[in-house]
């Protein structure tokens, strides 16, 4: 192993572009889910208390993850964890979005 290469500074280290997801959902929805979970916990909101949810997001995320027909009513794990509607509902019901909640 060439340890000298590890001592040389690099601008393109992959670790600089790595991040951890707190929720078992698409990366673009992590902020939405954190805000939702924080709100339901802070205000003790129950699923039965919720009549409607409105999410404001970027247009490309809306087109890809909220408006596509297969994600409006997900029928498998991939469309579920990329469905804004589904994971937001899970966040309210479970106060988290873990792997078992996504079609587990």
SSE-based structural type: mainly alpha
Mean pLDDT across all residues, rounded? 84
Please indicate the count of domains.
1
Major β-sheet profile: none
Residue runs with pLDDT of under 50 for 5 or more positions: none
Estimate what percentage of residues fall within beta strands.
under 5%
Total number of helices: 6
Rg over C-alpha atoms, rounded to the nearest angstrom: 18 Å
End-to-end gap: 42 Å
Helical content stands at: 40-55%
Shape: elongated
Q: How are helices and strands ordered from N to C? A: HHHHHH
Beta strands, count: 0
What does this structure look like?
There is one protein chain. With 104 residues, the protein is mainly alpha-helical. The protein has one domain. Helices cover 44% and strands 0% of the residues. The protein contains 6 helices and no strands. Helix 2 packs parallel to helix 6. The longest helix has 13 residues. The radius of gyration is 18 Å and the shape is elongated.
Summarize the structure.
The chain has 104 residues and is mostly helical. The protein has six helices and no strands. It has one domain.
């Amino acid at each position: 192993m060439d340890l000298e290469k590890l001592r040389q500074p690099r601008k393109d280290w992959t670790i600089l572009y790595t991040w951890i997801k707190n929720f078992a959902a698409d990366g673009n929805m992590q902020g939405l889910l954190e805000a939702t979970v924080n709100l339901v916990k802070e205000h003790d909101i129950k699923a039965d208390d919720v009549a409607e949810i409105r999410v404001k997001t970027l247009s490309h995320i809306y087109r890809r993850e909220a408006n596509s027909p297969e994600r409006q009513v997900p029928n498998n794990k991939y469309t579920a964890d990329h469905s804004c509607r589904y994971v937001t509902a899970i966040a309210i019901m479970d106060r988290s979005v873990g792997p078992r909640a996504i079609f587990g």
